[in-house]
Amino acid sequence: MLNRIGYFVPEFPGQTHIFFWREIVALKDQDVQLDIISTRRPVAQIVSHTWSPRAQQATTYLFPLTRNFIATVIELLRCGPAAWFRCLRAVAAASVSSWIQRFQLLAFIVIGAELSAIARQRRWQHLHVHSCANAANIALFAHLLSGLPYSLTLHGPLEDYGTNQFQKWQYARFGIVITQKLHEEVEQALAGHLPRQVLIAPMGVDLSAFYREFPYRPWNGKTAFRIFSCGRLNFCKGHAVLIEAVAQLRHLGISVELAIAGEDEQGGVGYRKRLEAQIERLKLRNVVHLLGAVSEETVRQRLERSHVFALASLSEPLGVAIMEAMAMEVPVVVTNSGGVKELVQDGVDGILVEVNAPNQISDAILRLISNPSMAVRMGQLGRKRVQQQFHSRRSAEVLYKAIEDCLDTRRNSNESLKRLILSERS
Fold first, then answer.
1. pLDDT tens-digit profile of 166-218?
2. Domain residues of the chain, as ranges?
């Protein structure tokens, strides 16, 4: 029976971590005792959700190591030379591109011991890691030291998560990916190094939190046409392309406003500055509004008031923000990058455009403006799509069952071993 697990999310809770919180709540609803583990606290400027203070209070952070230094040393000594050798052999075999990365792996052995000590103290049956980057390396070394079973979720292209993927995956009990496209990628790139199971479980939306208080009303031409976008301020999200599309609409005489929710990873002193410069250059200071990191409720309120949701990502693994807009019955105009095509059916429950194509974005928005009934229909079908396939409990159900199956397999193996030993003795 599944009782207690570790749940590892780097720099939790960040501005894009609402999905993890939903999954945590869903797992707890299944009576799973769950300890949240993270690497370090996120930058204060991107901690935006109403639940963030509770999440931080409930999270154990691995950095700085001084908090658990004595327990870490004791754990290293307890594991013994055989475990140290396994870790050093893994470091030597790691597929890394520099000696700096190899030395970094040596440091992760120590952090792995810290994680192992926490797992032993809290009696985890399993550890799930919501990352395939350095958090996965830490889990790998915890496993090599103490046998702690772990699993991984891949949220984007493998190339975004660093080196040593072969070992991260081959020692995992199972893996989860969020789209069919990513499943095909790992099957090809990691052939021969994958765990027994690699499951598909898309992220999802809490439909009880994202619902309309008032019916969607298409633009009446009397006020500004309101566009909403949501995503961290990073080049990959394509915000600059969307701003260019807004400038084109303004040039055509359309009264339009754009609000972008999200902040850059540096807390407002990074990519935001480039977007602010673009807004000034295009004379859109009173048209485009950068809201910074905002709460889930603020996102819902903005969607309630918006005529369209737009996201011009250069690469989008799937897109929780898109799901939230669809759940709110807001028509979506989004790029066909990554796994978005598994979420949005072009011309049915949204409009897909090419990457780096501001003309296509402005044309798609003009289609919605000129055809209000299409905007309403797409919004309604969008919510149905989310209800059927992208609700927030789906991933928690997959994760719960996968861990249960692993525990059953281990129990059966132990029972078989005991029977074998008893038969040999008799």
1. 999 999 999 999 999 999 999 999 999 999 999 999 989 999 999 999 999 99
2. 4-204+392-425, 225-389
**Adjacency order of strands within the sheet including 150-154:** 59-61, 33-38, 4-8, 126-129, 150-154, 174-177, 197-200
Longest dimension (CA), the chain: 90
Q: What stretches of 50-183 adopt beta strand conformation (E)? A: 59-61, 126-129, 150-154, 174-177
8 Å CB contact between 344 and 322 = yes
Angle 41-45-47 from CA coordinates, rounded to 5°: 55
Q: What is the pLDDT of residue 2?
A: 86
Residue 230 vs residues 172, 308, 338, 362: alpha-carbon distances, Å: 33, 12, 17, 18
C-alpha 62/C-alpha 68 separation (Å) is 8
Structure tokens at 245: 């599309």
What does the alpha-carbon distance between residue 207 and residue 313 come to, in Å, rounded to a whole number? Answer: 24
**Tokens of residue 144, six digits:** 């090599």
Strands 288-292 and 256-261: parallel
Residue 179 makes CB contacts below 8 A (sequence gap 6+) with 200, 202, 317, 318, 338, 339, 342
Residues 19-75 pLDDT 10s: 999 999 999 999 999 999 999 999 888 888 999 999 999 999 999 988 889 999 999
CA distances from 177 to 131, 197, 202, 339 (A): 10, 11, 7, 11
- CA 346-349-351 angle, to 5 degrees, is 40
Which residues 6+ apart lie within 8 Å of 57 measured at CB? Answer: none
Strands 33-38 and 4-8: parallel
How many other C-beta atoms are found inside a 10 Å radius of the C-beta of residue 190?
18
Closest CA to 307 of 381, 207, 222, 216: 216
Q: Domain 225-389 is of which CATH architecture?
A: 3-Layer(aba) Sandwich (3.40)
d(CA 230, CA 316): 12
Angle, to 10 degrees, between the axis of helix 69-93 and the axis of helix 99-122?
A: 130
The phi and psi torsions of 194 (rounded to 5 degrees) equal: -90, 150
Instruction: Please give the pLDDT value at position 411.
Output: 65
Architecture of domain 4-204+392-425: 3-Layer(aba) Sandwich (3.40)
Distances 142 to 2, 43, 116, 173, 196 between C-alpha atoms, Å: 20, 27, 5, 14, 20
Cβ neighbour number for residue 248 with a 10 Å cutoff: 18
